[in-house]
């Protein structure tokens, strides 16, 4: 596992010492050339074709129990083959760095326990009032007490004094680091709706058979999470475990709160926002079987749950389930394969399923479960689309339409809460000189820098570089350098100019960097400590705020014109999801959507949450323009410090692929397009990026994929990294 190199991506044979027992999934220390490295046992055998004089012995066994379960060893092999990676890279996905490194250790704290009867201890400690008090506490706790939990000044000194007198012992105990230990969340109990009950019954019936997959399609507020929890309870009754995936870290605390309310300490959490110690302790709890339910982001799909019965992927349409670092796996595909290996049930849930997933459900690859009504008979919110072109003609140059301003005022007067959604952080999108046209770009990336008013700096949202905002144009010296565009920070500022008395919370990547910041903000908003929540897409989905009756979408068009064939789909999904935050409590909801393209079908259909109408329109467009699911799109991304080397690799791959496709055009390999070009973001962190864009007919694509993988391997060279992505999450 210490070496991730294709040249040594194979099984090596070692001799097992007579006093050592090994099995697959156990890590060992072995000699490898002149070094000693960590490896993973893939299997054992009584015999080998390797000559005895060439065999070298295993030096040490690291794990008492296998670190990787047998089914996860099999999954690692699937990852290696499907994503064209090495076994070492696949195992690193499965075994967290906190476990691999050995640098994170269990946390210990001191405890004290009586070693004799309380009466005998009192006789030996007659003169000390504090010692008598501690003896009384320990009498009620025969297994001992953590010293940090003893409400007494100098508790450790008193405990040491008892130890010295031979009536107690002070000893270390392991203490679990608990994520979101102080998380508060209430969960209303209610009778399932008929559609919820049908979904639970269908999933439950599948738990005792072969692997099945379901698409749970329910409108926002239809109670998909309640279906998940009922299904998990049935899984636990069968002695099995479950994994619940969520797309954003910001959604994890809420889901953890709900599941802990139902399943107590049996629910664990895994995601990148935890401390190193928390990740280590939660992984150990899962591996040891103390936690049978796991809630987490993408990487939690590899959680070491034995006897897995169910994987749920909530908001399955989200692109965050695709890893953008090597290996570029898709957690939805991995979950499906893991369910196949362990005969588990897969549930994909969303109010706005991806076009590809819904198409598969219509073809019968997933069983479609529909929930068309909200729980408790609550209506969908009333949606108003405001034409911002008309606002401008009528003289309103504010970022808030007159309708949205009135709606905010009415909502605040009623004592209810508002969510304002704007999918761009910062204060202004970019800074430009009106005299010469110069725009401030990041010196390390091919992107403009974003202005942040809090500290008057320009920041790159790709590499994190910062610089002071210039007062004069760096190019021509003109003072006419201005800020253009709007970010969440400016939305907050302008809102407070209109309503100076209100309290606001702003949630974006700038305000949620510190640990537990999201939990604190969401908890404060849920308690009513702020009247308005302003944020990017991290507030758009999954959250349940009963007192939110108004949602305002400041700029609905932001995702419509991105260089991606899925821009219409993402716009529909984002708008539908954020509209669903309104009216989830006893009061009906209202949504005001501001747009410069109000007639666009993605915006108009999101207003009515008419997913099927949108699907029909979108699938027709994709069929006509040969986009997935009718084709397969691939991107070979070459990255490196030398622009010439990167471009040369991309152009060579284009030439070789065109030649191969031409030679094989009479076979089942049918190419639509191969093109090498600069990536839209041509430089990030001082690395140049060129991509080879490939579009294939889905039929016969497996042979092409194998050949592409071989070409990539043949063209690897020092200084240029090559990654292959299938239907990539982003074309930027």
Walkthrough of the structure:
The chain is an alpha/beta fold and about 725 residues long. It has five domains: about 100 residues, PriA, 3(prime) DNA-binding domain (GIY-YIG endonuclease), CATH 3.40.1440; about 70 residues; about 180 residues, 3-Layer(aba) Sandwich (Rossmann fold), CATH 3.40.50; about 190 residues, Rossmann fold (3-Layer(aba) Sandwich); about 100 residues, 2-Layer Sandwich (Alpha-Beta Plaits). About 30% of the residues lie in helices and about 20% in strands. It has 21 helices and 28 strands. The chain has a seven-stranded parallel β-sheet, with helices on both faces. The chain has a six-stranded parallel β-sheet with strand order 14-24-23-15-22-21, sandwiched between helices. Helix 1 crosses helix 2, helix 1 packs across helix 11 and helix 7 runs parallel beside helix 8. The longest helix has 21 residues. The two termini are about 30 Å apart.
SSE topology sketch:
Elements: E1 27-32, E2 35-40, E3 60-61, H1 70-82, H2 87-94, H3 97-101, E4 107-114, H4 118-124, H5 129-139, E5 145-146, H6 155-164, E6 168-175, H7 194-206, E7 212-218, H8 224-237, E8 241-245, H9 252-263, E9 267-270, H10 276-287, E10 293-296, E11 308-314, H11 331-342, E12 345-350, H12 355-362, E13 367-371, E14 382-387, H13 388-393, H14 402-413, E15 417-421, E16 430-433, E17 450-452, E18 457-459, E19 466-468, E20 481-484, H15 488-498, E21 504-507, H16 517-526, E22 532-535, E23 548-553, H17 567-579, E24 590-595, H18 601-607, H19 611-625, E25 631-640, H20 643-663, E26 671-684, E27 687-697, H21 701-715, E28 720-726
Parallel strand pairs: 7-12, 7-13, 8-10, 8-11, 9-10, 11-12, 14-24, 15-22, 15-23, 21-22, 23-24
Antiparallel strand pairs: 1-2, 1-3, 4-5, 4-6, 16-20, 17-18, 18-19, 25-27, 25-28, 26-27
